[in-house]
From TrEMBL:
It holds the Pfam family Lys_export. GO terms for cellular component: plasma membrane. The keyword Protease does not apply. Keywords: Membrane, Transmembrane, Transmembrane helix. It comes from the Bacteria. The keyword Nucleotide-binding does not apply. InterPro entries: LysO. This is Membrane protein. The chain crosses the membrane at residues 61-84, 105-127, 139-157, 169-190, 205-228, 235-257, 277-301. One of its GO terms (molecular function) is L-lysine efflux transmembrane transporter activity.
Amino acid sequence: MLTGALLILAPLFLGFALPLENRPLMTAIHYTVEGLVYFILALLGLGLGQMEGLALQLGNMAIQVTALVIVLLLANMAGLWIFHRWQPMNVAAEGFSSRPGYRRLFLAGLKPLAAVAIGVLAGYFVLPNLPMAEDLATWSLMLLLYLIGLQLRNAGLSLRKLLMNRQGLGIALAMASSSLLAGLVLAPWLDLAWHESLALASGFGWYSLSGIVVGDALGPAWGGVAFLNDVIREIIALAIIPLLIARRPAMAIGYGGATAMDFTLPVIRSSGGLTCVPVAIASGFVLSFLSPVLMGVFLSLG
């Protein structure tokens, strides 16, 4: 089990506690974060590639990922629909023609898969077992969380205003609670302890976090399942946001999970208009904090 799972939270909160006003430094942090994400994903792939009996486990992993994606999709859509009915939000959708770079964003969603695939191929065909790879991935993740904490603190966002955004906060809580309910439902089917299944369901689209944290705790196969579940969420979100946001904005924004404040935000903005931006940022911000907290808590229970 993950030793000191809750320690992954310390860098995030430490980074969030430090204000920075140096713009060139923040730019450097942005590119460092981007590079670290792909480095961590390559290490995740490396662990998968070096896993004994990988070929035999791929079928089981595909079934597990499919179950997670489908059950979470249904649960999230139901929970977010209920919230939408309770707290409806009206937007002035701007239509498909106003989505600049949509294809580019969709293709960018495939980049994490490419990083993991490169790691898998290197681990399976080229590199020997590297005993320090797991520790390197953990320390890289802690550095990533520290830098993300800095970014969140220095993004010009008021934590008070974000938490007071009722729509954004409500969407985040509906998304989180429906995901945890789905995790409980899936636990017997996945043959996992309830807290392990809840950890899998707590990624909220943050694939670079869930893949490494779950893999460290439950093994590389489950780390791969967590990663694929969250990266597929991001890809599905890019496809459904333009279809849902005009009439069901809570469902469109919420399903993107933690990515609503960064990766899927341009599609939310261009499809739903400026009204959706503060809601999406608030929802994504809350889920970005909840994800490591919940995963750390659930995995520490074992």
